């Protein structure tokens, strides 16, 4: 009887299934213990802000009055927001496309150079630069002053090498000294001159230290008698260093203005043209009889070419996209290069043995095989450019900030940058989230599909 009661009170035997079940429970508990801190951070830094922003978008600027969908209506009525949506669309279309194309081309070319590792390192180095530092670098590079902005310095150098530039952009004539200014910026004599006359044309507004090298005094040239049938004269700086001298006359210390174009005009048409010598002298020979007007064309006084307004309203968005390309091209190249390294080489070699050239191999074999990698890179860059903020905010100057604004910068400007309307700013944040989420879902599905 006692043995029977003890047998009935003993616990049932532990089976192998029970042990496995307990092991799974312990595994889940350990996994949850490790994941819990990350989940808490995710909830505090992502989930809660998203839910709060969604709720805040239905209240007014002060957050005290419920306004429903008024913020979303106002968002699409605001011209600045419409411009931000347009600029974001430009970013989404242009930047990822260019980056993916550049990354593909560079990844293919790097395989064919000897110093491939050094080349990859050089292109990937901008990724180590923060967006703040990169923005400051390109803000300086895009400066309109050629003495500061490296891009405009290069543009001005190339322009001046082919077109040339005026040596006297600040020169002008004194009032009442025999020269009148035309509507086109040229100067001409008020009195007519005929062959056999000598004409002295005095100008001011040129610093003596800005005179071309080799400039000589114009005193003798302004007084030299013209030969029969010859019209001559001198263009000089009507200014004596240290004071003194007589206005309208070339004094002994006053310099000629070399390399200045002079024209002889009759009946409104230039019949002869020449360039002044080192002492400012010029002469016209073989002119027919009759009165002429001596003219200094406007090209002598044209302001110097200042380059391109990179940060003006028309080019500020392409300029900022250029800075973004500089940073992210290495990233695209490395990812695509990793996919390229995994391609089956036998397919490429078989194509070469069949007579295909490198362009055909690239277009018909390499690109199709790399399509999954290219898609992931493109979508990743799309997600990234939708959130771009630093470069736009730093590179675009204040007067053109609205012309360069994107959704992320507009959201900040409306909420904290002077607008102080966090209801409308939250609505912009929700819009940005709705645009980013589909691309993120697509990328996650591609990633999960590649693991199966």
UniProtKB/TrEMBL annotation:
GO biological process: transmembrane transport
Protein's cellular compartments: Cell membrane
Keyword Cell cycle: no
Pfam families named among the record's database cross-references: BPD_transp_1, CarboxypepD_reg
GO cellular component, one term: plasma membrane
Transmembrane spans: 29-51, 89-109, 121-142, 323-344, 365-383, 423-444
Domain ABC transmembrane type-1: 85-443
InterPro entries xref list: MetI-like (IPR000515), MetI-like_sf (IPR035906), UgpAE/MalFG_permease (IPR050809)
Bilayer disposition of the protein: Multi-pass membrane protein
Keywords: Cell membrane, Membrane, Transmembrane, Transmembrane helix, Transport
Main localisation: membrane
CDD domains: TM_PBP2
Similarity remark: Belongs to the binding-protein-dependent transport system permease family.
PANTHER family the record matches: BLL4140 PROTEIN, DIACETYLCHITOBIOSE UPTAKE SYSTEM PERMEASE PROTEIN DASB
Record's protein name: ABC transporter permease
Top-level taxonomy: Bacteria, Bacillati, Actinomycetota, Actinomycetes, Kitasatosporales
